[in-house]
Design goal:
The chain is an all-alpha fold. The protein has two domains: 84 residues, RNA polymerase sigma factor, region 2, helix turn helix motif (Rna Polymerase Sigma Factor, Chain: A, Orthogonal Bundle); 85 residues, Orthogonal Bundle (Arc Repressor Mutant, subunit A), CATH 1.10.10. It is 76% helix and 0% strand. The protein is built from eight helices and no strands. α3 crosses α4 and α4 packs across α7.
Length: 184
């Protein structure tokens, strides 16, 4: 049994210290995933807190401590869906950090590229963002993504296919006006 599985087993029995240690190890990872899905730090914080509350409340019902990761991601994704539904507004959250300030043409190009990808990613539905984040950011295999979402692998493949296609289309659409303007 892994250390995490032992902590889960102890936390299932009400050991608050074990749960605190679980939160310390998994909390930052869950928050990073929530932020990448929701693209808003406040919504991500709320979703993470809701997921952690759900984890504490439902932990006694988790049958297999070895499946804690997939189970916790499933609860996090549900919290992200709720947060996205409750907050349908979009507020720009773009801040240049001192390390992000352009120092040359290459730096400026990287910032522009990152901004274009961010805009395209925000245009995706939450369903599509979830599979892209879990598959590409968390580097989860498709079967683990399916397990975390509680959907068949074929659904994950389909969502991933359409998400990447939508990202490509969005990036190409944004590039067209630039290409037309440069041709003038």
């Amino acid at each position: 049994m892994t250390v995490e599985a032992e902590l889960v087993a102890r936390a299932r029995q009400g050991d608050e210290d074990a749960f605190s240690r679980l939160v310390a190890s998994a909390g930052a990872r869950l928050h990073a995933v929530a932020y990448r899905i929701l693209r808003d730090p406040d919504l991500a914080e709320d979703a993470t807190q809701q997921a952690l509350l759900a984890i504490w409340k439902d932990l006694p019902r988790l049958r297999d401590p070895e499946r804690f990761d997939a189970w916790s991601y499933r609860l996090l994704v549900r919290a992200c869906y709720r947060a996205a539904r409750e907050s349908r507004h979009w507020t720009p959250d773009f801040h240049l950090l001192p390390t992000d300030r352009p120092t040359g043409a290459d730096e400026m190009t990287r910032i522009i590229d990152r901004d274009e990808i961010e805009r395209a990613f925000r245009r995706l539905s939450v369903d599509h963002r979830v599979v892209v984040v879990l598959r590409h950011y968390m580097d989860m295999p498709l079967d683990k993504v399916a397990d975390a979402l509680g959907v068949p692998v074929g659904t994950v493949r389909s969502r991933l296919h359409y998400a990447l296609r939508a990202l490509r289309a969005s990036l190409e659409a944004d590039a067209r006006p630039m290409a037309q303007e440069m041709a003038r």
